[in-house]
Hints:
By secondary structure, this protein is mostly helical. It has helices at residues 8-41, 64-73, 104-108, 141-147. The model has no long low-confidence stretch (mean pLDDT 82). One zinc ion binds next to loops.
Amino acid sequence: MAKRPNNANLTEEIISEAKRQAVAFEVQRLTAAAAREMRRTRPIPKCQFCNEEHPTKTCENFTAAEKKNLVIQYKLCFICLNKHNHHPAKCRTLRHQEELCTKKQCFNTYSLHHRTICVEPEHPQVSPPAGNGKAGNGKSLADRILEM
Ligand SMILES: [Zn+2]
Ligand SMILES: [Zn+2]
Ligand SMILES: [Zn+2]
């Protein structure tokens, strides 16, 4: 059995400590409930392209080329893909450089856009080697150039 505190002060202390803990627990409970409520009531972003409930930037229902056309059609921002009519230079997504297309081709032509709507090839198109494709296998590019 627990030892009964015979000191009145100690009893009071224990009670007040228990109350403090109860209050702290209650505050924590309410905070968590409030956070849950916030999550529940926050509107789910609707995709500008397909109208499904996901952020426009993560849409996988269209190809990059299709999305680029939709951006033009719906007059969306090329950088953030939102409807807000703002100048690209004022786009807040400019601060999130990791979201922007950084392909050299696009960079060189100053065509800023979100990386998910990029339709430029990663590298300039190189025409495939003529003749049968197997000839060059196993040889380094330098060897092949020397043979030419
Ligand atoms: Zn979508
Ligand atoms: Zn924007
Ligand atoms: Zn690009």
